[in-house]
């Protein structure tokens, strides 16, 4: 089995670099993991590495949205048997539920009321950073996930996390290709859109795994998560969402008024001041390189940056070359437009 796991390590990295969309990534990781841990469906969520807000989501043959949201609420409240907060923080990255009930499960596009045959949760942590979580499910009547399969998944948890990170970091930093104006949606306490600008509806369709399936009264997983986090924080929540057409920023703000729990969610291309901290983590930018990037964003030439940071111009240029290589840009101009 060791040789098989090592082969999957390599395959996961290659598949992540080749994936174009988040659903592509989910299917690729599921296929590779399925060679060792067979499953009938999955949910994959990526997290903003700075605040653990949802920034990527895809699923296949898995729980309904209502059940998934209930699970997220239970997870945050510590009511789940294996909460992701514990899985990403502790040494045990996997947790198995052999049988149980949810609100409703959907496997092989067939709705099954209130049940599942087995669930495995995997916390995706790499280099001490939580990058996401993965849920595998088996339909009712299937054999439950075994202790041996949980051990194999534990071995693959970090490579899966690294693959998720590579999916984002393999895309060069480029300016946003979105021409939509910022959108605002008011999310009621019932998790329905109470009101929204036309551009907000367009943004939500873009954020949906399958855009044509979005009911404008409902929410995508990413938008719902921001509203939920804003309520938990009692004020604000932020997520930076990487896409192949540029980074999107979602900002949730709890509203004052007669309806408790209403949240205004603003959706727009991510500005550089919000993007730089997240990009630094996703692309592996060092602390010194990030300081240089901050100076570049102010429009300072190399000599001025060197004086301000007490470095030689040669050292500043070396940092810039490392930044260009990591982010996939070729010049200071491309770096600036990518963070515009």
Walk me through what this model shows.
It comes from Streptomyces noboritoensis. Residues 278-340 form the HTH luxR-type domain. This is LuxR C-terminal-related transcriptional regulator. Pfam families: GerE. This protein is α+β, with helices and mostly antiparallel strands and 340 residues long. The protein has three domains: 2-169, GAF domain (Beta-Lactamase); 183-271, Beta-Lactamase; 285-338, Orthogonal Bundle (Arc Repressor Mutant, subunit A), CATH 1.10.10. It has helices at 2-18, 22-34, 65-76, 84-89, 147-169, 198-207, 221-233, 272-282, 287-297, 302-309, 313-327, 332-338; strands spanning 41-47, 54-60, 94-97, 104-107, 110-113, 118-126, 129-138, 183-187, 193-196, 236-243, 246-254, 263-269. The strands form three sheets. Strands 2-1-7-6-3 form a five-stranded antiparallel sheet. The chain has a five-stranded antiparallel sheet with strand order 9-8-12-11-10. Strand 11 (246-254) and strand 12 form a beta hairpin. It is globular, with a radius of gyration of 21 Å. Mean pLDDT is 87; it is low at 110-114 and 211-217.
């Amino acid at each position: 089995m060791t040789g098989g796991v090592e082969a999957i390590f390599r395959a996961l990295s290659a598949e992540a670099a080749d994936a174009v969309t988040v659903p592509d990534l989910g299917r690729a990781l599921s296929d590779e993991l399925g060679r060792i841990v067979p499953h009938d469906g999955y949910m994959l969520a990526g997290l903003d590495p700075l605040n653990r807000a949802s920034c990527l989501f895809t699923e296949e043959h898995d729980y309904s949205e209502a059940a998934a949201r209930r699970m997220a609420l239970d997870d945050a409240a510590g009511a789940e048997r294996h909460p992701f907060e514990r899985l990403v923080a502790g040494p045990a990255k996997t947790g198995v539920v052999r049988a149980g009930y949810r609100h409703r499960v959907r496997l092989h596009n067939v709705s099954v009321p209130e049940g599942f045959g087995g669930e495995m949760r995997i916390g995706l942590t790499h280099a001490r950073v939580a990058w996401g979580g993965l849920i595998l499910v088996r339909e009712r009547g299937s054999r439950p996930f075994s202790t041996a399969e949980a051990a194999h998944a534990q071995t693959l948890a970090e490579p899966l996390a690294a693959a998720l990170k590579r999916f984002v970091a393999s895309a060069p930093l480029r300016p946003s290709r979105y021409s939509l104006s910022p959108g605002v949606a008011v999310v009621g306490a019932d998790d329905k859109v109470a009101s929204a600008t036309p551009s907000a509806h367009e943004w939500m369709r873009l954020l949906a795994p399958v855009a044509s399936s979005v009911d404008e009264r409902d929410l995508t997983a990413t938008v719902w998560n921001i509203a939920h986090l804003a309520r938990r924080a009692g004020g604000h929540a932020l997520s930076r969402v990487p896409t192949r057409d540029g980074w999107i920023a979602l900002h949730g703000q709890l509203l004052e008024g007669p309806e408790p729990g209403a949240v205004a969610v603003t959706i727009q291309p991510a500005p550089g001041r919000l993007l730089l901290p997240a990009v630094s983590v996703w692309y592996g930018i060092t602390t010194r390189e990030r300081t240089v990037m901050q100076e570049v964003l102010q429009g300072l030439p190399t000599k001025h940056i060197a004086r301000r940071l007490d470095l030689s111009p040669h050292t500043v240029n070396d940092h810039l070359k490392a930044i260009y290589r990591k982010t996939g840009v070729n010049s200071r101009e491309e770096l600036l437009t990518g963070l515009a």
